[in-house]
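Case 428 in the screening queue. Each case pairs one protein sequence with one candidate compound; here the compound is acetyl coenzyme *A. For every case the pipeline is the same: read the inputs, emit a complex structure as tokens, and attach any notable structural observations.

Predict complex for case 428.
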Amino acid sequence: MPETLTITDNRTGRQYEVPVHDGTIKATDLRQIKVTADEFGMMTYDPAFMNTAACRSRITFIDGDKGILEYRGYPIEQLAEQSDFLETAYLILFGELPTRPQYEAWTKDVMLHTMLHTNLSKLMEGFRHDAHPMGMFISTVGALSTFYPDAKTIFSQESRRLQTLRLIAKVPSIAAYAFRHSIGRPFNLPDNDLSYAGNFLNMLFRMTEPKFTPDPVLERALEVLFILHADHEQNCSTSTMRAIGSSHADPYSSLAGAAAALYGPLHGGANEAVLRMLTEIGSMSNIPGFIKRVKAGEGRLMGFGHRVYKSYDPRAKIIKRMADLVFEVTGKNPLLEMALELERIALEDDYFVSRKLYPNVDFYSGLIYQAMGFPVDMFPVLFAIPRTAGWIAQWEEMLNDPDQKIVRPRQIYIGARTRNYVPKEKRK
Ligand code: ACO
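Case 428 output:
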């Protein structure tokens, strides 16, 4: 027997049977609920989409209560342990882990596209010396659409595949150029003999040596951080990617919008905010006072809390373990002690426990990035590089989904109704 939900409208006494699929009802099925035939019909009110599924997806599974994260069914812990970023990106984009020949062809194809058009580097040189690298990243990704106008043919699978290769390959190059610009050093060309993460380190940190050799621990740490950040289902930036893409904009424009959404301190900017918060707290003795202010509602404990995870974020667990390996190479980040103490207090304090506020992915990632030599401004950019894989996979899933249309939420209008225009001189 098909599952249904019976709704009784107390206003009219009428009953409605609404089909239930996958534990959800279709919001449009509520439109039949009306008091008078000429009214619009019942809507749901859901600011911030707290309880609305906007798509059916096969990419990423999260169980926020149990702290489970899986890409295409593979647990994040196994991927972080055994995979590398390009393999994980392939999995996220195409649904299956690649065979060895597929993996080799994919890696070669991506690495062929790492170079940036010379005019793009000129565009990036035009930014002020103190431009935020995320602002540079967003603008340059948007500018890619003018370099690759063929990207507009979004319903060509071949074109989508080419733009995917370009985007996955070029985002580290753009990120590295943004970093080099901010420290006043010349741009480094890619070295395609290196791994994806190894080449990124080369573009960031190579000085005068003819061949850059990445530190294997830092290279692996970056791969793992990239794997952990590759997708996270319908978060703010991914929903933005889908929303912009739903108007059939090209993938570069859509991705620039997604990156802009990631920039905010409540989303991808949180790791930057964590570091600023720790620096501002300044010393262990200031921690109790800081916690008191957070509990009084004067600011948030950045890197804590999550819309979906109501237990320890599984990515934070992996990052916390990896921090020790990185600090063996780089030396300990002096802010680590404060972060550990904040976590210890918060996990025992009723304010945080009762609200199910646990460390999220960003609580420790910033400490690692800082120890590796990245300025805090670069943190959201480091997030955007791997998330590019997730954004494209979600965008492509949206384009191929017959249920999807241009995104267009409804509103409840609460403003003034029809009134007559008053000339300026007669206004009070
Ligand atoms: N510090 C202190 N209190 C918090 C925090 C925090 N970090 N997060 C939530 N709360 C409190 C709220 O004040 C609220 O308390 P109340 O019920 O007494 O009003 C309660 O917990 C619920 O918070 P909401 O804001 O309703 O939770 P929401 O799901 O909307 O927010 C968010 C999730 C934005 C991540 C929030 O926890 C936050 O601002 N955290 C800090 C920023 C951060 O780390 N963001 C990174 C998220 S992970 C990512 O994007 C990769």
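Case 428 observations:
- The chain has 17 helices and five strands.
- The two ends are 65 Å apart (CA to CA).
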